[in-house]
From TrEMBL:
<comment type="similarity">
    <text>Belongs to the LysR transcriptional regulatory family.</text>
</comment>
<protein>
    <submittedName>
        <fullName>Transcriptional regulator GcvA</fullName>
    </submittedName>
</protein>
<keyword id="KW-0804">Transcription</keyword>
<feature type="domain" description="HTH lysR-type">
    <location>
        <begin position="6"/>
        <end position="63"/>
    </location>
</feature>
<dbReference type="InterPro" id="IPR036390">
    <property type="entry name" value="WH_DNA-bd_sf"/>
</dbReference>
<dbReference type="InterPro" id="IPR058163">
    <property type="entry name" value="LysR-type_TF_proteobact-type"/>
</dbReference>
<dbReference type="Pfam" id="PF03466">
    <property type="entry name" value="LysR_substrate"/>
</dbReference>
<dbReference type="Pfam" id="PF00126">
    <property type="entry name" value="HTH_1"/>
</dbReference>
<dbReference type="InterPro" id="IPR036388">
    <property type="entry name" value="WH-like_DNA-bd_sf"/>
</dbReference>
<keyword id="KW-0238">DNA-binding</keyword>
<dbReference type="GO" id="GO:0043565">
    <property type="term" value="F:sequence-specific DNA binding"/>
</dbReference>
<keyword id="KW-0805">Transcription regulation</keyword>
<dbReference type="InterPro" id="IPR005119">
    <property type="entry name" value="LysR_subst-bd"/>
</dbReference>
<dbReference type="GO" id="GO:0003700">
    <property type="term" value="F:DNA-binding transcription factor activity"/>
</dbReference>
<dbReference type="InterPro" id="IPR000847">
    <property type="entry name" value="LysR_HTH_N"/>
</dbReference>
<dbReference type="GO" id="GO:0006351">
    <property type="term" value="P:DNA-templated transcription"/>
</dbReference>
Amino acid sequence: MRRALPPLNALRAFEAAARLGSFKAAAEELGVTHGAVSQQVRGLEDWLRASLFERHNRRVMLTPAARAYLAEIGPALDRIAAATALYGHEAGAVLRVNAPSTFALRWLVPRLARFRDRHPAIRVRLETSNQPLEALADPGDVVIRGGPDIFYGTTARVFLSEQRLPVCSPGLLGRVPLREPADLRHHTLLHSASLPRLWDDWLAASGVAGLEPEAALTLDHFYLTLQAALDGIGLAMGPTALIADDLAQGRLVTPFAGPRLPARSYCTYVREGRESAEPVAAFLAWIEGEGAGEGRLPQG
C-alpha cells in the first residue's frame, strides 16, 4: 500500500525548528538558510492542512497539534538515522566525536589507538570545541562535555570523574621544596584564563587565602598551563583525570595530599535513539571502560 508521506526535507526542517525552538537555530544545524527552513515548514503546513507554529515576531511557538506531531516524528527520524548508521556502509563507517581540546589532547587521543584496535571497521573523526552543547550547529554522533546536564532529546552518561589539586615537575620541587601550602609564596602559580579562580579556591580551602606567590602566569588554554607545569615553570591546578599518566610516569608530582577541589564529571551526550547504533554503542562501551577507575588519586 502506498504511504502518504510528506517530503523528508520538510520533516527535517520542522523537527529541527520544533526541537530547537527557532528557525534560525534550525537553519544553522541543517546548514541551510533561515528562509529555506521557513519555506519547508510552510510547505509541510500546506501538505498537512494544519498550522504548526504560532509566529510571534522573532520567536515561534508550537501549536498543540505540532507538539503531538513532534512526539511521533522525532523518534521516527531517530530510528531512521540509527538504522542508516547500523546498516548503511558509508554512513556507519565514520563516527564523529566532539570533545573539548584539553580533554582530547591529554586523555582521549592517547587512548584512541586502543579503540581502533578493538573496532578496526569504525573510523573516528575527532572534532575539538569548547562551545556548550546547545551552541553546536552540528554535534555529530557523540559529544563529550562536563556534566551531567539535561538537554531535550539527548541522553547523558557519566564515564569519568576527577578532582583538582596542585601539581608540578619533580625538578621544581627539588629546587624549592614545598612542606606546607604557605610555602607557595616562594613559587610561580600557573593560571588558566578559562578557570581563573581555581588557585583562589584552593588557597582558601588550604587556610592561606590571600597568599601572594613570588610570581603568577596566566595562559589562554588549560593544556598550556599543564605544559608549563611539566616544563618546571611553576605549579598548576591539575585535573586528576588528565594528569594520571604524567603522575604514573613521574613527569608530575603532587606536593600536597589535599585539599582536593571537586570538579564536574566528563559525560557523553548522544541524541535519544542513537545509543543503540552500532558505532555509537561500541564507542560508549569502550570509553566507559577506559574511564572506569580513573580520575581519582589515592588518598594521601
